[in-house]
Amino acid sequence: MTLSEGVNGGPESAGSSTLSLDDGDIHVRQDGPRDAPALLLIHGSASSTRSWDALVPLLTGSHRVVRIDLLGHGRSAKPADQSYAIPDQARRAGAVLDRLGIEHAVVVGHSSGGVVATALAEERPDLVTALVLVNTGPSLGAFIAPDPAGPGPSQWPPTDEQLRRFASTGFSRAGYQIPHELLDEVRAMTFHTFATTMQATRHYMEQRALPDRLRGLGKPLLVIFGEDDRRWRSSSASDYRAVPGAKVELLPGLGHSPLLEDPPRTAAPLLAFTAIHGVRVD
User: Fold this and answer.
1) Domain membership of residue 214 as a residue range
2) How many angstroms separate the CA atoms of 144 and 229, rounded?
């Protein structure tokens, strides 16, 4: 396995890297002081590290922020012959932290990225000190069926108009201007990776609801939920209260992607939480 560094750093550095794992290359982005408490940010389905761009500058004053493109997304490899199951995506995320020499991290997941974060906490409780789930539905019963449905294989790659229609429920208001670079990230996926990664999330949640998985792990948990989510019922966020000590923050006026719609309001509870549960590097 090899590591190709985009930027080599001193105590504070930023840059992109490519980690060559056994089942595919993973794109990694790092920002902030290397000796600060580590935050791992995991994007949702059909997204990438770029979905965090507006939030990261609010976090780097006090954190080493690590972002990854999950296999099949962004600048990571998109093989047709590898597993996109949630436990395998979580294993790769853990391998990235191992390769970076990070022994403890608060893991933040948006939407289905929160499902991967949950699996990582299950697989690597030694590595995950605490979890933050941003608009991650607790179970499939909380899902609001998307309208319209996503593009099919005969429509791939989709046009901007098709992508904007599909992505519109990811925001609280229909007029929100989705960043063009995020549309490009979806179009760069193959239809196989687009469909298979979404199916993997559904399969994992069919097996067991997230609060049930998290309840016995003993990990501090913060749930941030845009109250006007059009993909997951925001009232379902209360299901996470089954996890001992879980804290739930509803953000009125924001939808499924508060990290894009209002980064400062998203960062505030996250930073308050990590100030308590982050682990500083000695």
Assistant:
1) 13-277
2) 9
